[in-house]
Amino acid sequence: MKELPTISEAEWEVMRILWSRSPQTANEVIEALEGLTDWKPKTVRTLISRLLQKNAIAFQESGKSYLYYPLVSQADYVQSETQSFLKRLYGGAIKPLLVNFLQEQKLSSDDINDLRRILDEKSDAELKTDRRKDN
After folding, report:
1. Within 13 Å of residue 21, how many CA atoms lie on the same side as its CB?
2. What does R_g of the chain's alpha carbons equal in angstroms?
3. CA angle 51–76–69, rounded 5-degree value
4. Residues 61-78 pLDDT 10s
5. Rounded Cα–Cα distance for residues 19 and 74 (Å)
6. Is 115 within 8 Å of 107 (Cβ atoms)?
7. Bridge partners of 24?
8. pTM surpassing 0.70?
9. Which residues fall within 8 angstroms of residue 68, CB to CB, at 6 or more apart?
């Protein structure tokens, strides 16, 4: 995966709006954030400008307006942030994170069953990969 620009928590909120629906004008982004934040329109425009400088978003001209859209998917950013989090807190190891999570969180039976299913699928996929390597 290519190196993604680092974005702040505030910039993440703007990205979330653009990921949900794009392209959008600055005014549409401002409107979408009105119920979520107490930011002034100038603040949102500054965040948009920063995201443009970081090449996280781009724009296309439409008459007198600029339509903004993300240059990277939300899934790519989530993956990047997850890897960064793992490295910072757990030295890149997933097992201590999962152990900590499972010990500290209340999980419903459905949650536990879903986690088992995911782990079983992951285990099956790893076994298939290992068999291909052996052949």
Report:
1. 8
2. 20
3. 40
4. 999 999 999 999 999 999
5. 7
6. yes
7. 68
8. yes
9. 18, 22, 23, 24, 25, 26, 29, 48, 52, 57, 58, 59
